[in-house]
Amino acid sequence: MPKPGRLSLLSRTWRVTLATLVCAVLVVSALAGNDDWFPFGPMAQFAFRAKPDGVISSVHMEADTSAGTHVRVPLTTNGVGIQRAEVEGQLGAFKRHPAKLQAIADAWRARHPRQPRYTKVYLVQQGIRLHDGRPSSRYAVTLAVWTVR
Amino acid sequence: MNRAVACLAGWWCRPAPASRIAWLRVLTYAFLWLDVFDFTGDVIAHGYGAAELYRPVLLARLLHVPAPNPVTVQVLRVAILAGAVVAAAGWRPRLSGTVVALAYTWWQLVNMSYGKVDHDHLAILAAVWVLPTAGVASSRDDSRGEAAGFALRCVQVAVTGTYFLSALAKLRMGGPDWPTGATFAWSIVRRGSWLAHPLLDVPHLLVAAQFGLLTAELLSPLLLVLRGRWRLALVLFWASFHLVTYLGIGIHFLPTAILLTAFLPLERVAAWVRRPVVREPGYGRSPATSSSGTPRTGNGSSAS
């Protein structure tokens, strides 16, 4: 038996081995991994380099409603249960399969049954052009449109 | 070789007070309540939302974690919340802590499987997995042990790694010229507060800040090396960094920030809070009933 406060050889070995292994995985992941490796993925937040003369884009959704209005879709937990960044993470899939926008309309109806329903959902990308790191001009393009079933 | 291994093992398992683990448990498990109800409350929404938006990450696929439904998310939430209370109280910490670790990992796998992965959860996930390994740890037991030391070290390494690996990711993905880019401007345009927006007019300041951040991240392993006041200063630097990014772009990074406390002598803070208060003789009696009729000044009257 080890002394009080000391670990036995076995307890020490598995701890140190596992900890060292996890550290190794994290370093490999930082150099070669991607977000799919969560929770061991690279710490990629803000790791990309935005060009000082590039474009900053962000995505949002708009919708026509059964009340005849045109509204902004709340891409939040309490809105349609999916966040803007999550939509951006799946942007390719939304562009290729606009039918996925049906899920947004369904989620809105399920969460806000008393509000006007969405009849048409628009996926819009907005951009701000930078010049020398300063915002200069803006644009917007519609990436996908879906008529709600 | 053997000496190197022994040295490495000694570093990972350097004895630490049991009481520090007890306090770190309270902080960690209390944070889970905040996380589950607020920061990652989306998981509940995902449980009631559209399963076709579920895109499981690698580990979730390997473990066959199914798309969440109302039952799984509610059960997970109860398991985390109840387990956290039991584990924070220190009752059967190995068992209760492991239940929390399993449920919370499942919860986070679901959370990160909708196209967006957050990078602020490494340290808290490490904490929920290693805290149970420290076994029973009372807040009144200041004796040092290797099990406590190992758990503490792992949390410290996870916090440091979060910063250091961020620098590696920036150099890999953004390239060595990451600091000269407009990444901070990008973040302010997309999510900046009224406090941050004026900074867009001073791009050079943002570039300087980018150099500063990358440097700080590369030097973060100093957290594991420095002692005493220098370490405290570095901890305060990172804490204020998180405060500034919260005020500027609404990113709090609390799951990491809260565990900066793993670098502090928590048991001493607690001891200070519990310190015996020196009271004047006659304290609490009204002067009218005092025998001498004059305010009494006993020993240590100034040390109230």
How would you describe this structure to a colleague?
The complex is a heterodimer of chains A (149) and B (304). Chain A has 2 domains: 1-47; 55-147, no CATH class. In chain A, 32% of the residues lie in helices and 29% in strands. Chain A has helices spanning 9-32, 84-89, 91-96, 101-111, and strands at 55-65, 70-73, 118-131, 134-147. Chain A has a 4-stranded antiparallel beta sheet. Chain B has a domain at 10-170. Chain B is built from 14 helices and 2 strands. Chain B has helices at 2-12, 18-39, 42-48, 58-62, 70-89, 93-111, 122-130, 146-174, 183-191, 203-218, 222-225, 228-249, 254-257, 266-273, and strands at residues 16-17, 144-145. In chain B, helix 5 packs antiparallel against helix 6, helix 7 packs antiparallel against helix 8 (146-174) and helix 8 crosses helix 10 (203-218). Chain B starts with a helix and ends in a 31-residue tail after the last helix. The model of chain B is unreliable at 284-304 (pLDDT under 50). Chains A and B meet through helix 1, helix 2 and helix 4 of A and helix 1, helix 3, helix 6, strand 2 and helix 8 of B.
Outline of the structure:
Chain A has 149 residues and is α+β, with helices and mostly antiparallel strands. Chain A contains 4 helices and 4 strands.
Arrangement of strands in the largest sheet of chain B: 1-2
Shape of chain B: globular
Radius of gyration of chain A, in Å, reads 23 Å
Order of helices and strands of chain B: HEHHHHHHEHHHHHHH
* β-sheet strand percentage of chain A: 25-35%
Distance linking N and C termini of chain A = 70 Å
Question: Largest sheet of chain A, described in full?
Answer: 4 strands, antiparallel
Instruction: Name the poorly predicted regions of chain A.
Output: none
Helix-strand pattern of chain A: HEEHHHEE
Class from secondary-structure proportions of chain A = alpha+beta
Tell me how many strands of chain A there are: 4
Chain-averaged pLDDT of chain B = 89
Nearest-integer average pLDDT of chain A: 91
What is the radius of gyration of chain B computed over CA atoms, rounded to a whole number of angstroms? 24 Å
Multimeric status of the protein: heterodimer
| Structural class based on helices, strands and sheet pairing of chain B | mainly alpha
What is the tally of helical segments of chain A?
4
- Most residues in contact: chain pair: A-B, 61 and 70 residues
User: How would you write the strand order of the largest sheet of chain A?
Assistant: 2-1-3-4
Number of helices of chain B: 14
* Number of structural units classed as domains of chain A: 2
